[in-house]
TrEMBL record:
This is COMM domain-containing protein. PANTHER family: COMM DOMAIN CONTAINING PROTEIN 10, COMM DOMAIN-CONTAINING PROTEIN 10. Pfam families: COMM_domain (PF07258), COMM_HN (PF21672). Residues 135-202 form the COMM domain.
Length: 202
């Protein structure tokens, strides 16, 4: 999981968006953010959760101008997207929102509560939208023990072979990994970290 130091960077636009968030009515902000979350679950690539007509109504309801609305949308989408990519748990998210991004406690709690309820669905949706052209279809594995001799001494070396079947627009292909004990251990640790991060979102 990403640490609080590199989880998100406080750009000028994000900081301006956070300042706007802090000024909004809590109930109105909750409704606004809930709509953004639902839109992201339907289409992770969408950066326009509201129609033009709805945006005009938001300007009046939230008492902000067009530029402030754009900054508000930017802040909400960036925070949620980065939390999704970082597999961050609600407690850590709340801490970063308050101490790094300087959201008020009320606004941080709104973010955190929505995240706690919808994190799994967001992560699954973003996972389906792979940034890579190739996707893993199937995997097979084999563990083997190789024997080597050096100065009349025999050494047994464990090896693991992972064969992955990949699919892409052009067709299917295979990728084979030949890993020694140290490499396999590192791969296992990475997968364990990912699983722990996913479990923390439950």
């Amino acid at each position: 999981m990403a640490s609080s130091k590199n989880w998100i960077s406080l750009s000028t636009n994000l900081q301006a968006g956070v300042e706007i968030v802090n000024k909004l009515d809590n109930r109105k902000f909750h409704l606004f953010l809930n709509r953004v979350v639902k839109d992201m679950m339907q289409n992770p690539d969408s950066h326009k959760p509201f129609t033009d007509e709805e945006e005009e109504k938001l300007l009046d309801s939230l008492e902000i101008n067009r530029n402030e609305l754009n900054l508000l949308l930017h802040a909400a989408i960036v925070i949620l997207a980065q939390a999704t990519y970082s597999l961050i748990n609600p407690e850590k998210l709340n801490d970063i929102l308050m101490n790094t991004l300087k959201l008020t406690e009320e606004k941080a709690n709104i973010f955190t509560n929505l995240w706690a309820n919808d994190a799994k669905n967001l992560i699954l949706k973003f996972k389906q939208k792979s940034v890579y052209t190739r996707k893993l279809q199937d995997i097979s594995w084999l563990v083997n023990i190789e024997m080597s001799s050096d100065n009349n001494r025999q050494t047994f070396i464990p090896k693991a072979i992972l064969q992955m079947k990949l699919s892409e627009d052009k067709g299917a292909s295979d990728l084979t990994l030949d890993l020694n004990e140290n490499q396999l251990s590192k791969l296992y640790n990475v997968l364990e970290d990912i699983q722990v991060a996913l479990d923390a979102l439950v």
